[in-house]
Structures are given as structure tokens and as C-alpha cells.
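TL;DR need C-alpha cells for one chain.
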Amino acid sequence: MSTHLAPLRAVRELRRIRSFYAAGVLLWASAAAWSGWTHPGSRQMWVCLLLLSVFTGLLATTSVWLFRLRATWSHRPARHAAPRRAITPHHADARTPFLPQRLRLPASGPGPLRGPTVS
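>> reply
TL;DR here they are.
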């Protein structure tokens, strides 16, 4: 992985997981409220509150990491894409080995490994 792309990928992954943790916080908050309303002081309510605190801690940690990555990333110079160039046809050298024998240019000088010439 390239070093200048690592913070971009980290920010993207942290944003994705932060939304997952936020959904977990909403789910366990609603479950804790429901179980607290229907069965106050039950084991189910305490488990919901425990999982709510775990997801809240994970969400807070992820948000702090994102904040720190954005702060360090904003001080770097912006990288812009290279300008587009006009598409020009590229010509291969006539003596390249992937061309058929009949299309090769005659070689200069005598030699046993020279290909036939086209007249």
C-alpha cells in the first residue's frame, strides 16, 4: 500500500465503522429503554446497558481517531491528478521481436541471424 494513500483508506474505513457503531448505539439504547420500561432492574436491561456503553466507547474512540486523522491530513499539500494529455498513437519499432518476419526492416550488414528482407 502506498504511504500517501494509507490515511485516505484509514479515514474511509473509520467512517464506515463509525456508522456501524452509531447504529449499534441506537439499537442498544432503544433495547435498554424498552427492557428498562417493561422489566426494570432485570438482567436483560443491564446487559443492554453494558452493550450500550461498549458501543458508545467504540463510537467515541473512532470519532477521536477521525478527528486526529483529519487534523494531521489537513496540513499536507493537496495532491491533484496529472493533467490529461492528448491521446497520440504510439508506433512500435520495426525491429521489435513481436512483429512478423515479413514486416521487419532489413538489418544492416551481413549476418546469419538476420531476417529476410521485403522488396
